[in-house]
Write a structure and sequence with these properties.
Structural class: alpha+beta
Shape: globular
Distance between the termini: 83 Å
Number of helices: 13
Oligomer: single chain
Strand content: 25-35%
CATH architecture of the largest domain: Alpha-Beta Barrel
CATH topology of the largest domain: TIM Barrel
């Protein structure tokens, strides 16, 4: 090759290399990476502009973003992406009256969230599939720094004892916690800061687990649910009907009928957040009868007649500028006089300096043609982002109920129907969105499909298909759960449901079972464990109720929450995977009943649930004095809880009886192997060690434990000396 040819070749190769670098750099510039220098076990977020709108953006059959992640070890993961409308948040007010102002801010983005579990160079290759085709973006390389603190990892079913849970590093995870089911809007925890406060209080006392709904329709945070600016699920329904004399292209669309003499108030579930000083355009499509006149009422701004020719659909638009200090849209209503009118396609958008739309429709809840199924509320999703972050900051792990039951229950009646298949597909898409948006976080411990599904519905196929799908897309393989409004052992034994969940309430009509929470929840634990072979079992709702399952009046008299404290110990020492989870979280918080978590948390901190293979044990106990006992045992270890059956919550709070001192009580553990044992006796009320004894057990058989004197109840930990 001549010298000239070599020079030309070198120049060409340099140009090609430069073009390659430019292409990669162009892809990197288009993909935003946050943070720039992440550490292991820190969320990495990659995003790029989204040029589509809901609901199509939520349908992965039309639009799908995924990232192939190559880790330093060479292992590859596929991480699903999701459509995200960024939001701005502000906290308004203080204390219990605090609310959260949430405003869509900026353009929507395609987003991937990933948690790197190892330090080193990670390569992300994003692929975006749209109706126009598939784009594979240039790889993005991120150097992940070592984590300054060790991480426990993700929650999973324990490998060596599947009755319990553990972290991916092998350490035991024993849930102690409660429900905080309804958050946001006008709830007890109305703001993300309020939620964080509850998390922090329980965490400070040893609580580590919260069951939370993301499926609350229009009364609290909800990803997918019925949300209308024209009414509420529990109130009068708006008059929605087919568009009369619909113009071309709008046949079959719906509209709101406006009745003469009545004001149609626009009242979304969350106040519409505005940017002070910004300009907005309110628009829609209107039709009126000859005798009707329509007035737009906007505060501030006053009344404005809407001129529209009678008998045909006419678009209208009204522009206004928000006051400099205005945070939310004021009164908005349509008033009809002298006849009827019809309204559809109502919208409110912020305008840029060129009077062009600068954001999404802020009145999407007023769209009567919007499909509820398949639409994921971006403001509530942004709120839930902050709830997950609050859990991460406080050391709390979440069991998230994802699917709004009432949207799907009727469609899931016949397994061989088209409606069943369509509902299953919609739920699959919703679960994909949840995994993509929050699956990065180790503090999302469990996906729960439904809260209290009808146990008579044929859901086996749904759970099988969903379970197999989540097994593929949720690379962290966190537990999958569901619940029903009464017993359903088929679910507890289902191979694609990883935990067995039971809800049970203390109710007056059940007699002694109502008065004795310790015996009741020990019994319910045995009932559940007997019907859920080889998997973690949880009492994921309990509380003191009336016979209609509403808040029990007796709760006001049990100011020490003794009914809850005894249920915590009975459940935790019966072989369940965690403590029973209280339902009325607002009462629990007002009573500061979190103090009952600390004695239990300290007691179980070093219990070898997994390595010792602990399982329910039949514990014998003394008749005189009469005590009752529950316990777990395995491989030379055991835990026992003894309680005075006369010292029930009812005896203390309702009958005003003071618990007596119990002397000379004992318990026997069957089939303990010969050896020398240490027995630590624990005051389960005060949360402290009260005695330590050494026992020589010469022959196989029952091991007798003589309890120190106690009031109410006492616990023991037994292990090799």
């Amino acid at each position: 090759m001549s010298r000239t040819a070599r020079v030309i070749l070198a120049v060409c190769l340099a140009l090609l290399a430069r073009a390659s670098v430019a292409t990669a750099q162009e892809g990197r510039d288009r993909v935003r990476v946050e943070p720039a220098r992440p550490t292991a076990w820190q969320k990495i977020e990659l995003s790029l502009p989204a040029d589509c709108i809901p609901p199509a953006a939520f349908d992965d059959r039309k639009y799908e973003l995924a990232a192939e992640v190559t880790e330093p070890s060479g292992r590859k993961r596929t991480v699903p992406g999701f459509y995200c409308q960024p939001c701005e948040h502000r906290l308004l007010g203080e204390g219990r009256r605090q609310s959260e102002w949430i405003r869509p801010a900026g353009a929507a983005r395609w987003t991937v969230r990933h948690l790197a579990t190892e330090a080193g160079r990670h390569t992300f290759t994003l692929t975006l599939r749209t109706p126009a085709g598939t784009r594979r973006l240039s790889p993005v390389t991120i150097d992940v720094l070592p984590s300054p603190t060790p991480a426990r990892g993700y929650v999973r079913v324990a490998r060596d004892n599947p009755r319990y849970l553990e972290f991916s590093d092998g350490r035991v995870f024993f849930p102690i916690g409660q429900n905080i089911a309804f958050v946001g809007l006008s709830q007890y925890a109305a703001s993300s800061a309020g939620v964080r406060s509850l998390f922090a209080k329980m965490s400070a006392q040893g609580g580590n687990y919260v069951r939370m709904w993301a499926c609350c329709q229009d009364w609290a945070a909800c990803i997918e649910g019925v949300k209308s600016a024209w009414g509420r699920t529990w109130g009068p329904k708006p008059a929605v009907e087919d568009m009369p004399d619909a113009p071309p292209g709008r046949q079959g669309r719906r509209c709101l009928r406006l009745e003469a003499g009545k004001a149609a108030h626009v009242n979304p579930t969350r106040p519409v957040a505005l940017r002070g000083g910004a300009k907005y355009r309110l628009g829609g499509l209107l039709r009126r009868e000859d005798a009707a006149s329509v007035v737009l009422q906007l505060s501030p701004g006053g009344d404005r007649p809407l001129d529209a020719p009678a008998g045909r659909w006419t678009s209208f638009a009204h522009e206004f500028r928000a006051d400099e200090k205005q945070l939310v849209l004021g009164r908005l209503a349509f008033v009809v006089r002298g006849g009827s009118a019809w309204l559809t396609d109502l919208s409110l958008v912020e305008l840029d300096d060129n009077a062009a739309p600068a954001g999404p429709n802020l009145l999407w809840q007023a769209d009567v043609n919007r499909s509820t199924i398949g639409w994921y509320d971006q403001e509530d999703c942004s709120f839930l982002d902050r709830v997950v972050e609050a859990a991460e900051q406080t050391g709390v792990y979440l069991q998230v109920v994802v699917v709004t039951r009432d949207l799907y229950m009727k469609s899931l009646s016949r397994e061989d129907s088209a409606e069943y298949a369509e509902a299953s597909e919609s739920i699959r898409r919703l679960m994909r969105y949840a995994v993509a948006r929050w699956g990065y976080s180790p503090h999302v411990a469990t996906w729960e499909y439904f809260n209290e599904m009808d146990p008579g519905k044929p859901t086996d196929r749904l759970y099988r298909e969903l379970g197999e799908y989540l097994h593929r897309i949720d690379g962290r393989r966190r537990p999958r759960a569901t619940s029903t409004w009464s017993h359903r052992p088929r679910d507890w034994a289902h191979a694609q449901l990883d935990t067995a969940d039971l809800h049970h309430y203390l109710r007056p009509s059940t007699g002694e079972a109502y008065r004795d929470s310790a015996s009741t929840y020990a019994d319910r634990a045995r009932f559940l464990l007997d019907r859920s072979p080889g998997k973690p079992a949880l009492l994921s709702e309990f509380g003191l109720a009336d016979d209609k399952f509403q808040r029990g009046q007796a709760m006001a008299k049990d100011k020490d929450f003794e009914h809850a404290r005894r249920a915590l110990w009975a459940s935790a020492t019966s072989g369940l995977a965690g403590s029973a989870m209280y339902w009325w979280w607002d009462d629990f918080d007002r009573a500061d009943a979190y103090r009952h978590y600390r004695p239990l948390a300290d007691f179980v901190a070093d219990v070898p649930f997994v390595s010792a293979g602990l399982a329910p044990a039949r514990v014998a106990c003394s008749d005189s004095p009469a005590v009752r006992a529950v316990g777990i045992a395995g491989k030379g270890h055991a835990c026992v809880w003894l309680y005075d059956p006369k010292a029930t919550w009812h005896a203390q709070a309702i009958e005003n009886r003071t618990p007596e001192l119990v002397r000379g009580a004992w318990a026997e553990l069957p089939d303990m192997p010969p050896g020398e044992y240490s027995v630590i006796w624990w005051d389960s009320v005060a949360g402290k060690q009260v005695a330590r004894r050494e026992i020589r057990h010469a022959a196989a058989g029952p091991l007798r434990l003589s309890a120190p004197d106690f009031r109410k109840d006492i616990a023991a930990k037994i292990g090799p000396r």
